[in-house]
Fold each of these.
Amino acid sequence: MAAASDEITDTAAPGELGTAPHTGSLSRRMMMIAAAWIVVLLLAGGLALDRTLTSLVTNNFDDQLEYMLTAMVGSAEIGPEGEVFFNRPLGDQRFLEPNSGLYWQIRGEGHEDFPSRSLWDRSLEIDGDHFDSEPHIHDSDQFLNEPLRIAERSIRLPGSETQWWFTVAASRSELNAQISQIRSILFWSFIVLGLGLFLMAALQSWYGLSPLRRIRAAIQRMRTKGTNRVDDPLPLEVQPLVQELNGLLAHSEKQAEEARTHAGNLAHALKTPLTVVMNAATARANDLPDTVIREAAVMRRQVDHHLARARAVGRRAVGHARTEVFSSAEAVRRAVSRLYPNARLDLDGNREALVAIERQDLDEILGNLVENAAKYGGGSVFVTVDTDREGKLCTIWVEDDGMGIPNEERERIFDRGARLDTGKPGTGLGLAIVRDVAEIYGGGVELGESEDLGGLMVKLMLPRSG
């Protein structure tokens, strides 16, 4: 399963798109994390369960020893000579069998030890320098190859001043065998549980990452079959990624369409001047030099226009810029004042307005608008920058006191080469450049009538920066 999900990180085959850098397998990373947690949790749980069950078995074993010890104390009496004896025999037959693994012994100072027959020729070592009023249980290795579990208690029997130590000992072999059996069951149970959890984690990883494999297959279909969208139904967690991918594809498709349109427009714009030059050259016209110069200037202006638009598209793709509108407008006003010294250019508005457009493109836009206002107006140009300071777009008004543009001509004037006043030099590309560059950055331009000056009012809208 992990091998199947590793394909998510595969790159293109050698010789197709090259090998892209990667940070390893996502499924392998998930499996390693899952395996680490499974090992840690099973180890901690196994140790806790082992300690609990071992404690329960040991406590049960100790309870049996305490029961025997209590039976010894209850059956013990003092004889006529001060010796201790049992008024009834203890019930476990192992106390009568030599080396059976179950022993008892009674010891008192000044008296001989009173042992069980199972001890045979051995005796239990007792630390008699203290008094245990309650049963005391501990392990002992005093018998060779036979570890013991000992329960002992100190008591003074009625009719005796002697401190007696009652001791019951049992071999730990039975207890150790039970503990080993429990640990063996726990070990194999947790091994099976761990393998099951690991397989479940592998299945979860394989199934959980299947949407990414479907996305990869959809992208491969786009590359091989020409589809342009990922339309497969996918989980909610992956859907935003698909939406962004589809948005990127739509953006790329739009840019490709713009590039094709741009190339077609440039070819169309150059076709007529080239035809004129070819006809003049073929006919060996007398004004061929003048024709070449005139048509070359037209072609140069067309190329400049399309290059400006291409630069704007390229800058937009790089990232958001920050340009001060007022400083750009000041620079344009100084430049236009030198070209039209008789025109009065006024500038007002928000001096802190920032737009998300490159300074060079903003200078070109404002330069076209202000120069047109100075050229075709009556001598007064008024530029107002962002008076409301709200919304996502920064608005710039350029007004003049000229004849204006009739409503029916305001849309046509944006066409490349469209000119209403042919008596003055120009190419008719100014407003077309303004509209194209503004729209590339997400803005726009509208034409209206100036209420204050009576001429044309151009409303330029550009996206704010930040």
Amino acid sequence: MKNICVIYGSSTGTCQGLAEKIGQQLGVQDDGIIDVQNLTADVVNKYDVLILGTSTWGAGEMQDDWYDGVKVLKQTGLQGKTVAVFGCGDSESYSDTFCGGMAELYNAAKEAGAKMIGHVSADGYTYDDSEAVVDGEFVRLALDEVNEDDKTDSRIAAWVEDLKKNLD
């Protein structure tokens, strides 16, 4: 399998925990699970596959540390890289912006030249609106540790299996 890292932005620890679960299922070593605060061009260049994760804040924005992280991604460029995105949000309290931060991160990676993989059907989710949904699918994996934590493990497992098919 290709050289994979998981890069996350987390304010409360939720997204970090999800990044660790995803990394474990992908066989990523601990040093390949990286806080976006530590993202550099060297990190980007070291890996073939980047799994990017963000929590969602405010009116659907990425976690704050990702704004500097996106600058690194764009300056370094993601041509020849494979990227998948995951996000976490609160589908009940923020039903109209559920996982919206994930859309920002997805768009930034795509604009930086990445090959994007890992779309997820929006079926089975409860929310009113999300910028992260295009044609009935999330731009990648959406997770809700507040209201649907009982679905997290199965959603991650299915997503990781799908990713593995696209990484061989």
Amino acid sequence: MARIVVVGSVNADLVARTARHPRPGETVLGSDLEVLPGGKGSNQAVAAARLGGDVALVGAVGDDAFAGTAMSGLLAAGVNTSAVALVPGPTGIALITVDDAGENTIVVVPGANGSVGAAAVAGRQQLVAEADVVVLQCEIPRDGVEAAARAARGRVLLNLAPSRELHPDVVRLADPLVVNEHEAFGALALLTSDAPADDAGVVRALVGAGVRSVVLTLGAQGALVAEGGRDPVTVPAPQVEARDTTGAGDAFVGALAARLAEGEGLVHAARHAVRVGAYAVTGAGAQPSYPDAGDTLPEVSR
């Protein structure tokens, strides 16, 4: 039994660095190309495991040359990969461009991740049901996400990324729902016709619409946390110089899951997670930039 079970994607990231992102129809020269392990599910599992979490992953890779790279970070971090299936066809791929400011653009080709639907989750139902925290994202089929959320008996951490339509009852199972500003409005549209104008109004409206708790991530500004009938709490982030923002949100989610699995409260867990996310943007790539439990994290200036 793993205390944290992540149900999600496993990719190989093809990362190109360039001075700036090309405009439509334009070609620019890149300075470097790396092939790294990635995928939102894999990233979040690795982030939690490197911080000391007991983590298993439910997912799939293809039978191509990219599978080894995609699995390498999970194996190095000690994630239990016994529920990662090997399926015919290509492994999931993310095509990532990173500019000199550290900002990225990403195109994801799902590949084997498309096989992680409701039937695949049903085959791992006991593993999911026994977890203290079940972590979900949206790079696998919708029915796989929904089946895992409904199978969970522990806490469901739903990262609605990339933004997509899910059954409203599944969104309401999230505790917490982790979203950025764009994803938050998408989630709210699934639940209510309310249209608040500010971040605090959005998280209040999500909780008011039945979501158990919400963490709204705000990048360099940190996060906003709402749960129950309490006022939203602002969680500031450390100020760091960003080298590469790829996978920083997944580092945040993995760190949040690790602390929640230890029984820590949501606000305190989020305070730790923003520091892990800030650490991640100072390194290159997704999984290679994640801290281990003994690493010194940046501090929030007072």
Amino acid sequence: MSSIFDSFFNKDKENRKPGKVEYKNKPPENENSLKIKAQVYGQVQGVGFRFTTTELAKRLNVNGIVRNENDGSVYIEALGDSESINEFIEELAKGPSPSAQVDRVEIEYDSSITDYNGFGERH
């Protein structure tokens, strides 16, 4: 499905250097569905990061939430099939917003995350 925002999301995408992805634990074995907590650091507030993360999640059929944190980072809880979650993590590292500059993404697999229906911003 195409969006009027496609050109915005893909602006300079090939030239963006992804931030470092740090895994705090290993993914559960033999699971088709994964649940993660992600903390994204860098220039990720005030650049449309939450909006573009929400659009990315919808495109990948990932459910969860995204919110700004007081320390300038962005916090995400996400769940979906393993292929979608892995692609979601890759795109977070690049910064779904062309104005973002991601330095680091910390990922923690956590099966206790709520089973969200859809994806949205929290404040």
